[in-house]
Specification:
The complex is a heterodimer of chains A (about 120) and B (about 110). Chain A contains no helices and eleven strands. Chain B has no helices and eleven strands. Classes of the chains: A mainly beta (about 120), B mainly beta (about 110). Chains A and B meet through strand 9 and strand 10 of A and strand 4, strand 5 and strand 9 of B.
């Protein structure tokens, strides 16, 4: 089946530093990928839609200068949390649809747990 | 009113029980429906993907879609403790906009 690989699975960083999270589609090409944030015992909150070769589309309330998204190839999207602060500590998850057309099922990475000290 | 409603649970059942998980939705344009299982501190795992109304079976799992009632279900037969997780429904009209339910926490007691 389709595999989405996300790294790192866990990261601890100091306040004020930046952290990059990678999301790769291993056996399919993804022109679109999605980035979510999830708080404990809550559902997924869509942060942004990553589009290969163009700018990401951010959801209302998400700071695009803080959460930088780059989708430079058909198999890789990255999320960089810049100048991280403790309130950015969360579980970040990426996903990608396995085909074109906007109706394919999403496959998810295993998430990245970010802790900012 | 949310586009997708899902009872958050928790739902506790004894091992071997049949579990019924449900979502209702308000947008009649939704045509593609998914169920995911999410273990704690892991990404959601796709269980079932269905298109339009009807039933689909895969092992112990059966997904059911009733578009006339805007209601989808996931049935788990012979539930096991390893099925204890949060189950998320998701749907889309085919426009790259995927709407998720809030998830139902399931506990299967040994």
């Amino acid at each position: 089946g389709a595999v989405v690989s996300q790294h790192p699975s866990r990261v601890i960083c100091k306040s004020g530093t930046s952290v990059k999270i990678e999301c790769r589609s291993l056996d399919f090409q993804a022109t679109t990928m999605f980035w979510y944030r999830q708080f404990p015992k809550q559902s997924l909150m869509l942060m942004a839609t990553s589009n290969e070769g163009s700018k990401a589309t951010y959801e209302q309330g998400v700071e695009k200068d803080k959460f930088l998204i780059n989708h430079a190839s058909l198999t890789l999207s990255t999320l960089t949390v810049t100048s991280a602060h403790p309130e950015d500590s969360s579980f970040y998850i990426c996903s990608a649809p396995t085909g074109p057309g906007g109706n394919s099922p999403l496959h998810f990475g295993n998430g990245t747990r970010l802790t900012v000290t | 009113q949310k586009e997708v409603e899902q009872d958050p649970g928790p739902l506790s059942v004894p091992e071997g029980a049949i579990v019924s998980l449900n979502c209702t939705y308000s947008n009649s344009a939704f045509q593609y429906f998914m169920w995911y299982r999410q273990y704690s501190r892991k990404g959601p795992e796709l269980l079932m993907y269905t298109y339009s109304s009807g039933n689909k079976e895969d092992g112990r799992f059966t997904a059911q879609v009733d578009k006339s009632s805007k209601y989808i279900s996931l049935f788990i037969r012979d539930s096991q403790p390893s099925d204890s997780a949060t189950y998320l429904c998701a749907m889309t009209s085919g426009t790259y906009k995927y709407i998720f339910g809030t998830g139902t926490r399931l506990k299967v007691l040994a």
